[in-house]
Specification:
The complex is a heterotrimer of chains A (452), B (348) and C (86).
Chain A (H helix, E strand, L loop, with lengths): L3 E2 L5 E3 L7 H7 L5 E2 L2 E2 H8 L3 E5 H16 L5 E6 L6 H9 L3 E4 L2 H10 L6 E3 L6 H9 L3 E4 L2 H14 L4 E7 L13 E2 L4 H12 L3 E6 L9 H22 L5 E3 L17 H4 L3 H13 L10 E4 L3 H4 L3 E12 L5 E5 L16 E3 L7 E7 L8 E9 L6 E5 L5 H4 L10 E4 L5 E5 L4 H5 L14
Parallel strand pairs in A: 5-21, 6-7, 6-14, 7-8, 8-9, 9-10, 10-11, 10-12, 12-13, 13-14, 16-18
Antiparallel strand pairs in A: 3-4, 5-15, 15-16, 15-20, 17-20, 18-19, 21-22
Chain B lengths: L4 E6 L11 H9 L5 E8 L15 E4 L7 H15 L3 E3 L3 H16 L9 H6 L5 H8 L6 E4 L16 E4 L5 E4 L2 H15 L3 E5 L4 E10 L4 E12 L5 E6 L3 H14 L2 E10 L5 E7 L6 H6 L4 H9 L15 E3 L9 H10 L3
Parallel strand pairs in B: 1-2, 1-4, 2-3
Antiparallel strand pairs in B: 5-8, 6-7, 6-8, 9-10, 9-12, 10-11, 11-14, 12-13
Chain C lengths: L7 E2 L4 E4 L4 E5 L1 H11 L4 H11 E2 L2 H17 L6 H5 L1
Antiparallel strand pairs in C: 1-2, 2-3
Helix pairs in contact in C: 2-3
The chains are: A alpha/beta (452), B alpha+beta (348), C alpha+beta (86).
Chain lengths: 452, 348, 86
């Protein structure tokens, strides 16, 4: 006779505010497969923890985003934000889907070039660009987005030296009614800094001012703020046209669109309330179409959205190491997923879904990672089904930032697997080995031997 | 002629000291002249008194908190609909309106009708947006400013005179008489409800409330103003009286005409010593004292149900002035099994 | 170890403690263990029965069993030693 699946015995006091069991029953459905591949087999093959990215979801998401904008505005270009996820395979999917590259360092710039991205289709953002980086960008005719006056003067000198005319844009910061206002990047709109920078560029004659850029914040929940930003940039572009008879080719609204994650402290889940691509597209395109651009001469609209394009495609698979009870009687569960690979657990309440079937019984649980560090908490409080040691879980919406901001700390970083359109898994980044880490170290000779 | 029978689900069964409107709404529906009802209660917690009022509520189902997400709520409503064949749902909590508004088309496709404000109306009337709202619709509102940063507090005295009201995004309000108090309330309230904090001009005067119903086309279907006579330490009316004030009714009609408000609502108004009216807050649902409106001749929940079902409703023309409501508490005797039943199975 | 005499456990997994007025919900394996305790089975016997029926191992069950007993004690559902002696 086959045995019944074991579940630990639990007893819970009935409290008036307690969610009833139907709630936990419907709130959780086990996630046994990702794109047709079983979670069990993935972990068996590639180990636990494991990052999994769905190529299907990446492609369908960028297509959805393009459709939302292209049906509302005639000229749209997406540029993949490398810092969000710069694994070569992921960047390549976006480039296949027609995205340019948006980079914010010399390292990212070189990565894009080595992947084969046309220099003309690289947008170079960020406050730090070395002279060497800028020379490369000028040579390759990339789009350089100027962050501050020092950079403006450097580019001007380099242009003079190299007898070339770099294509530049300025980054503009502004009040769009959102808080915090990102005024540390670029030139301020309201106090005239931006207009001043534009005048300096135009009068120098050494650079070609092709675009205006802004990036108003991160995880934005208000599409209207983008509408305001688009109107202000449009006004600036029209002022340039009026004063210098010079046409601004593109308006770049940056990124910052929220994904479906739930920010800590939100009452309603992010998947219900966060704006969709359609909401953002509607606000931005109507602001541009309602401005005074001539109908046949609208600027190109560039979008650098990262998070909203990749978050949903990423999964982090893991296993239960142990169940404990705290001194206060609270249930603690330890997973093999730590904050060193799931950075986003500092600001999201990630949903943790078991990978196997379970009953409707649940316990209020604090979910810890495996690190010997007090800050290693994945969820302070989650109503979780009764997981056994060795059971597997799936954390969803982890595609953005985790595979760039992760750190090699205490343990080695895991494999990243891509499930392709034919539901076939491929390793796209290998698990780290001890040699990878120690191979970069050097020990001075006098420390070489301590077993005397 | 035999009256048709409608299956109506109602939330807000928490008839406690800071009551939800559900039980009053149900009483109104039971007295409707245009239909008979079978009432399904929808509860969040097992001790909501309405669950155990079997003469008012035929059957109750627990529903998940809005924080569980729209899909979870929909799955639960599908289950309830299968059993109860609902015609109408009347949500009565601010916090649940967002998911219900989002679900309106899906529920309609299932044959369940609601009569709620649009998402735009719901967002626009939010406290944080009150200044813009007043400007846009030409309605007097107290001057207010949304602040995110404690450093901006020092510039407030140039715009506001003391005392000023420090309000939280969702709940909580305190009256501050000095910058130090503003700072202290800023910290206290933002710790609890997050940012932003709303600074509002303090208006000396008397508080009034108006409940009513808009048809979504700008017409006033119902409007009853009330003055609170007895206020609990939670600021809730424990007694009130219907009054006749043309200015208040004018403001209500203007609000409905300009916003094309759809559904029930409650306006919180302040009248200063010069008789000027200010709109302090718009609650996007019926208030707990809605039964007073029924008592003075405007059965607003009945009219709301008829509008939800797409029927033509004649606006109420009059109401009795000077009628009072006095709330009272009532101890029911309940078997433990009933509490366990709703706690464990989510149905009673 | 004994369950308090007047503690009532229903089929549906409801447990009521008339001394404190508290109600509890218990999952099916929890009820099974409560019934075994009521039948005065000792921990080894209970362990054998559960291991025969469910997919688990001795170490896991033992840990969960004593955790469960700890929670029963915490909620005052077991007779204390003094009471047992008396």
């Amino acid at each position: 006779m086959s045995k019944i699946r074991y579940e630990r015995p639990v007893i819970k006091k009935l409290e008036t505010g307690m969610p009833n069991k139907f709630g936990t029953r419907t709130e959780y459905a086990p996630m046994t497969h990702i794109d047709g591949v079983s979670v069990k087999s993935l972990i068996k093959e590639y180990g636990s923890p494991l990052f999994v990215i769905s190529e299907k979801t990446v492609r369908s998401t960028i297509r959805k985003a393009r459709k939302a904008f292209e049906t509302r505005y005639p000229k749209v270009q997406f540029a993949w934000s490398y810092k969000t996820n710069y694994l070569n395979a992921i960047c390549s999917i976006f480039h296949q889907e027609g995205s340019w590259a948006e980079v914010v360092s010399g390292f990212e710039y070189d990565k894009a070039i080595s992947l084969g991205v046309d220099g003309k289709k690289i947008i170079f953002n960020g406050p730090e660009k070395s002279e060497e980086d800028l020379c490369k960008a000028i040579q390759n005719d990339s789009l350089i987005h100027i962050d501050h006056l020092d950079e403006l003067y450097t580019i001007s000198e380099l242009a003079d030296k190299s007898k070339s005319r770099p294509r530049v844009a300025i980054r503009v910061n502004m009040d769009t009614g959102v808080y915090p206002m990102w005024d540390r990047f670029g030139f301020n709109y309201e106090n005239g800094q931006a207009w001043d920078a534009i005048n300096k560029i135009m009068h120098s004659g050494r650079m070609e001012l092709v675009g205006l850029h802004c990036h108003i914040g991160t995880f934005m929940l208000s599409p209207f703020a983008y509408g305001i930003a688009a109107s202000k940039l449009a006004e600036l572009a029209l002022s340039v046209e009026q004063k210098f008879k010079h046409e601004i080719k593109y308006i770049d609204l940056g990124g910052g669109f929220a994904s479906r994650n739930t920010l800590k402290g939100s009452y309603l889940p992010g998947s219900d309330t966060n704006p969709t691509f359609d909401d953002f597209a509607e606000a931005i395109s109507s602001a541009l179409l309602n401005s005074n651009f001539k109908q046949d001469n609208l600027p190109l609209l560039i979008l650098e959205t990262g998070r909203a394009l990749i978050d949903e495609a990423g999964y982090l698979l893991g296993s239960v190491i142990s169940n404990k009870r705290s001194s206060t009687g609270r249930r603690n569960t330890i997973l093999d997923i730590g904050v060193n690979i799931l950075f986003t657990s500092f600001w999201y309440d990630h949903k943790i879904t078991p990978a196997q079937s379970f009953t409707q019984y649940s316990e209020d649980t604090c979910v810890y990672g495996p690190l010997c560090m007090n800050i290693d908490v994945i969820r302070e409080s989650a109503s979780l089904p009764l997981l056994n040691r060795g059971d597997q879980v799936v954390i969803q919406n982890v595609g953005a930032y985790n595979m760039t901001q992760w750190m090699q700390f205490i343990s080695l970083r895991p494999h990243v697997v891509l499930i392709d359109m034919d539901e076939k898994p491929h390793v796209i980044r290998l698990r780290e080995t001890l040699d990878n880490i120690t191979g970069m170290e050097k020990v001075p000779e006098h420390l070489a031997n301590f077993n005397k | 002629m035999k009256k048709r029978k409608l299956n109506i689900a109602v939330t807000g069964l928490n008839a406690i000291d800071s009551p939800g409107p559900g039980v009053s709404v149900i009483r109104a529906l039971r007295e409707a002249s245009s239909f008979d009802v079978n009432i399904t209660g929808l509860s969040y917690e097992s001790l909501e008194p309405g669950i155990y009022m079997h003469d008012l509520v035929d059957r109750t189902y627990s529903i998940p908190y809005p924080a569980a997400g729209i899909d979870t709520l929909l799955a639960r409503l599908e289950y309830i609909h299968e059993k109860e064949k609902l015609d109408v749902i009347i949500p009565n909590f601010d916090a649940e309106l967002y998911p219900f508004i989002k679900l309106e088309p899906k529920l309609k496709a299932m044959g369940i009708h609601m009569f709620l404000p649009t998402l735009h109306q719901f967002e626009e009337r939010h406290k944080v947006n009150l200044n813009d709202f007043g400007r846009k619709y030409n309605i007097s509102v107290p001057k207010s400013k949304v602040i995110y940063d404690l450093n901006t507090v020092h510039s407030l005295p140039s715009e506001f005179s003391f005392p000023m009201i420090v309000k939280g995004k969702f709940y909580d309000a305190s009256i501050a008489y000095s910058i130090e108090q503003v700072k202290s309330y800023f910290n206290k309230i933002s710790a609890k409800w997050g940012l932003p904090i709303i600074i509002q001009e303090f208006i000396h005067g008397t508080e009034f409330n108006v409940t009513g119903l808009g048809d979504g086309k700008g017409n006033t279907i119902a409007a009853v103003p009330m003055r609170k006579q007895y206020i609990t330490d939670k600021g809730k009316a424990w007694g009130g009286i219907s009054i006749s004030d043309e200015k208040m009714l004018d403001m209500t009609r203007k609000f409905l005409k300009n916003t094309k408000w759809r559904g029930g609502f409650e306006l919180e108004l302040m009248k200063n010593k010069d008789g000027e009216l200010y709109l302090l807050e718009i609650n996007p649902r019926l208030p707990a004292w809605i039964y007073l409106a029924v008592g003075v001749g405007q059965n607003i929940p009945e009219a709301l149900v008829n509008l939800a079902l797409g029927e033509k409703v004649t606006p109420f023309a009059t109401y009795d002035v000077g009628k009072m409501f006095i709330r009272y508490a009532w101890d029911m005797i309940v078997d433990r099994e009933e509490f366990e039943q709703i706690s464990i199975y989510g149905e009673l | 170890m004994k369950l308090r005499k007047n503690v009532a456990v229903s089929e549906a997994g409801l447990l009521f403690n008339p001394v404190t007025g508290e109600s509890f919900s218990v999952n099916p394996i929890g009820i099974e263990i409560l019934n075994l305790i009521r039948e005065e089975k000792d921990p080894e016997q209970i362990g054998r029965i559960i291991l025969n029926k469910y997919t688990t191992d001795q170490a896991t069950f033992e840990k969960d069993y004593y955790d469960f007993i700890g929670i029963l004690e915490h909620h005052n559902l077991l007779e204390s030693h003094e009471e047992t002696k008396a």
